[in-house]
Amino acid sequence: MSKGLVFVVSAPSGAGKGTVLQKVLELVPGVVFSVSHTTRAPRPGEVDGVHYHFTARDEFQALLERGDLLEWAEVHGNLYGTSRLGVESVLAQGLDVMLEIDVQGAGQMLKKMPRPPATIFLIPPSLAEMERRLRGRATENGSVLALRLANAVKEMRAMSGYEYLVVNDQLDDAVRQVAAIIYAERAKHRRLLSGEPTPMWGA
User: Fold this and answer.
1) Domain boundaries, the chain
2) What count of other Cβ atoms lies within 10 Å of the Cβ of residue 10?
3) CB of 97 within 8 A of CB of 143?
4) Beta pairing class for 69-75 and 78-83
5) What is the pLDDT of residues 155-203, one digit of tens each?
6) What's the predicted TM-score (pTM) here?
7) In sequence order, what are the residues at sequence separation of 6 or more whose Cβ sits closer than 8 angstroms to the Cβ of residue 171?
8) Structural contact between residues 178 and 166, judged by C-beta atoms closer than 8 angstroms
């Protein structure tokens, strides 16, 4: 059985990545979402172990010191990280892994993974729309919202380093684009157990 592929999705706050990825996972079989560890508090409706592994800061530091995190970053004053064992166990089953991580974590993944992950940057159609979405969530106070907007502008500068850019203007279109990227990457990396490219018919 060949190992699965890793897909890294980054996006500024307000790009709607959570909704897009949820629908992609419903649409495309064989893809597992990597549940990150975070030190931030759960938002209303979030479930531990489903949306994130909500972790105390000292527990997160212990994971980091043991080398149990494949990547990690501090974002908006909170720590986020991806379990090495969690990703490796899914890949070993021949399933693909979808990681929702920021640009710092994406850079670490590109350096550490033996097979570079496919990278996707998801953006809203405009900064004004991004701000409207963030205000509509009503989950942060004014100072936190301002910080997220300022960081989003910085993150947008990193999008040129990603292989794929998807604009989340119409949700269904964005979902179809991400799904198409997954199928394209699967076709590109399809291999025999020997590691050689699949031969052409009649070869």
Assistant:
1) 6-189
2) 25
3) no
4) antiparallel
5) 888 888 999 999 999 999 999 999 999 999 999 886 544 455 555 444 4
6) 0.81
7) 16, 19, 20, 23
8) yes
Strands 37-38 and 78-83: antiparallel
127-130, long-range: CB within 8 Å, 24+ apart, which pairs?
A: 127/152, 127/153, 129/14, 130/12, 130/13, 130/14, 130/15
Overall size of the chain counted in residues: 203
CA distances to 12, 24, 148 from 124, rounded to whole Å, are 8, 17, 14
Q: Which residues pair with 113 in a beta bridge?
A: none
| DSSP per-residue letters across 127-193 | HHHHHHHHHHH--S-HHHHHHHHHHHHHHHTTGGGSSEEEE-SSHHHHHHHHHHHHHHHHHHH-B-T
Q: Let me know if domain 6-189 sits in CATH 3.40.50.300.
A: yes
Query: What are 149's two structure tokens?
Result: 């907007």
Return the residue matching tokens 């800061």. 57
pLDDT tens for 108-166 read 988 888 888 999 999 988 777 777 777 776 556 667 777 777 777 778 888 889 999 99
